[in-house]
Design a protein that fits this description.
Blueprint: H1 12-27, H2 34-41, H3 45-52, H4 58-79, E1 82-89, E2 93-94, E3 101-102, H5 116-126, E4 130-135, E5 141-147, H6 152-160, E6 169-173, E7 189-193, E8 202-207, H7 210-223
Antiparallel strand pairs: 1-8, 2-3, 4-5, 4-8, 6-7
Helix pairs in contact: 1-3
């Protein structure tokens, strides 16, 4: 049996409660059902009850700890990258202040009616951290970013309005829209800096565990180094 110096042998109930306490703290909850604890440990509920009723040998304790480690590895693999939306068509919508654009609005500007899908998508993006990609009208990736401290919704909209001078520009012609009539003829074409919302047509967003966000962003940026508007080549 597993025994610490100067104390009684460790019971299965004690070890299971230690695992449960860690799980509750990590999830910020007050209680954890046996079914959830069993999944956390990678064992069946019946095995959980069996462990709880006996004192543990060192081998049994080591086996339970190893099962927990393997279960944690499987959970990490399953949650490593979760697609939230892919190649979603953007609908640049000016905010109430009229100074910035959002990637879309869940409410129809003309009718005022809320689109339940768009409202749910916005809520999901506000709840997640991860990586995102903006695509042009042909579907080519043009910008990749990450949301670590801020949520995806806020970070994507910040990037959507970002103007970065010489890095982000296209050849354009200026056409006045007031004070005069259209006269036709040639207009000078010149290179102009643009915000991302002028050239991005689609977006993809993925939820990623905080510890892996930087690595995934670096992989994307380095994989499309000659196509993206990103200034820095992130290091893996």
């Amino acid at each position: 049996m597993l025994q610490a110096k100067g104390r009684l042998p460790m019971t299965g109930a004690e070890l299971l409660e230690a695992f449960a306490k860690q799980a509750r703290s990590r999830r910020d909850i007050d209680s954890l059902p046996d079914a959830e604890l069993a999944r956390e440990l990678g064992i069946s509920v019946a095995m959980l009850h069996a462990y709880r009723k006996k004192e543990l040998t060192p081998t049994q304790a080591a086996t339970l700890i190893e099962k927990h480690g393997r279960a944690a590895e499987r959970r990490l693999t399953a949650s490593a990258i979760i697609p939230i939306v892919e190649f979603f068509e953007l609908d640049a919508t000016w905010t109430v202040q009229g100074k910035t654009c959002n990637i879309f609005s869940p409410r129809n500007e003309e009718t005022g009616k809320e689109n339940r899908y768009l409202a749910a998508l916005r809520k999901r993006l506000t709840q997640a951290h991860g990586i995102y990609i903006f695509h042009d009208s042909r579907g080519r990736a043009i910008y990749a970013g990450k949301a670590v401290e801020q949520n995806l919704w806020k970070e994507m909209n910040n990037a959507f309005n970002r103007d970065r001078g010489e890095v982000q520009n296209i050849k354009r012609a200026y056409h006045p829209v007031t004070r005069g009539t259209f006269g036709g003829g040639l207009v000078k074409i010149k290179k102009q800096s643009v915000a991302l919302h002028h050239i991005a047509s689609y977006a993809s967003a993925y939820e990623v565990p905080d510890g892996l966000i930087g690595k995934f962003e670096a992989l994307i940026v380095r994989s499309f180094a000659n196509d993206l508007l990103n200034v820095r080549m992130e290091t893996i």
